[in-house]
Specification:
Elements lengths: L3 H6 L7 H15 L5 E6 L11 E4 L7 H10 L5 E6 L6 H9 L3 E3 L2 H13 L5 H11 L12 H8 L12 H26 L3 E4 L15 H9 L3 E7 L1 H4 L10 E7 L29 H18 L23
Parallel strand pairs: 1-7, 2-5, 2-6, 3-4, 3-5
Antiparallel strand pairs: 6-7
């Protein structure tokens, strides 16, 4: 699982060897033999040449950042680092591969809830119990108001790690754990942007979908705090090149449209927060209105780059129900 040790020992590179290996030994040969794969990138003139940025991209399939990174590499543009969901690091071989390719694992409160429950119960938590625990952590219900099952009682009352149930609530324990990990994510992302001069790829919608979904607040929390421009990228066609879990492209065209940078001075002028805060923490949530406003603009900017059938989904069709399988 993703823990402090993993995030601390992660070796990020200005010129990531793993990405070069994938580009030259996998993607290049794969794309250039029948049934050929074309990578079209439009709008590279929109990229700032004097600073790094965060790319906000829609997430159509498992691999749609690969052709984008390959196309940028072939154009001799800066390398990138990608935020990757923590759940994809459960397989040791895959975890090693992600580390070699300059990715940063992104744990979340939901991920920690499920990992902690599995450690306590030696079994995966079901959706119903997960929703109860998530509601506790999100302050949507009080621990005193629930009648816990045997499994939930163990999770809420059994000491482990640095959790002492007699001294703090379960929600406070999860928040403390999350804050420690996400402080390291913040540090490693700053390292990627400013020390290694890598751009950072983010899928702000948080889950795969052919149609664009509204962006989650994490990207805005980081970008507003550190005044990093957000560059929208519309991705189209990759889901047909990579229709399943197979990383071998099946041929076709992956098209990416890069929009103009969204900056703190103009696009987010009314979203700026003068007080210092720590992104991804409970502390930052008091500014949620600013983050929501910023992410609406990011989502709309991506949407303007997309054609049908990729444009923004009707909110009535978006299922926001927390589910365990989305996180682990």
């Amino acid at each position: 699982m993703i823990d402090e040790t993993h995030l601390q020992r992660l070796k990020l590179s200005r010129l990531p060897f793993g990405q070069k290996v994938v580009a030259n030994l996998l993607l290049g040969p794969n794309f250039n033999i029948p049934p050929f794969t074309r990578v079209v990138i439009e709008g590279t003139e929109n990229l700032p040449r004097d600073r790094t940025v965060m790319f906000a991209m829609n997430h159509t399939d498992r691999y749609n950042y690969w052709p984008f990174q390959y196309g940028m590499y072939r154009r001799h543009l800066p390398f990138s680092t990608t935020w990757v969901k923590g759940k994809y690091y459960e397989n040791k071989a895959l975890s090693w591969f992600f580390d070699q390719c300059n990715n940063i694992p992104l744990p979340s409160r939901g991920y920690l809830i499920l990992q902690d429950a599995r450690a306590v119960l030696n079994a995966k938590l079901d959706d119903a119990d997960y929703r109860i625990l998530r509601d506790l952590v999100d302050d949507k219900r009080r621990q005193s108001d629930i009648t816990p099952s045997t499994e939930l009682r163990r999770i809420l009352e059994e000491p482990r790690r640095d959790f002492k149930p007699e001294q703090e609530s379960y929600a406070d324990f999860i928040h403390r754990w999350n804050d420690r990990l996400m402080a390291l994510v913040e540090q490693r992302t700053l390292e990627a942007l400013f020390k290694n001069e890598n751009n950072v790829i983010v899928f702000p919608q948080g889950t795969r979908s052919i149609r664009l979904l509204p962006g989650k607040p994490g990207m805005a929390q980081f970008a507003l705090r550190h005044r990093v421009p957000i560059v929208p990228v519309g991705s189209m066609g990759s889901e047909e090149v990579y229709p399943g879990a197979n990383p071998w492209a099946g041929g076709g065209t992956c098209r990416y449209v890069i929009g103009r940078p969204l900056t703190m001075e103009s696009d987010f002028a009314d979203c700026q927060i003068n007080d210092p805060y720590t992104p991804f923490t409970r502390e930052a949530e008091k500014y949620s209105a600013c983050f929501t406003r910023a992410m609406e603009r990011v989502t709309n900017a991506i949407n303007d780059l997309l054609e049908e059938p990729y444009k923004l989904a009707d909110t009535d069709d978006v299922d926001e129900t927390p589910r365990a399988e989305r996180l682990i």
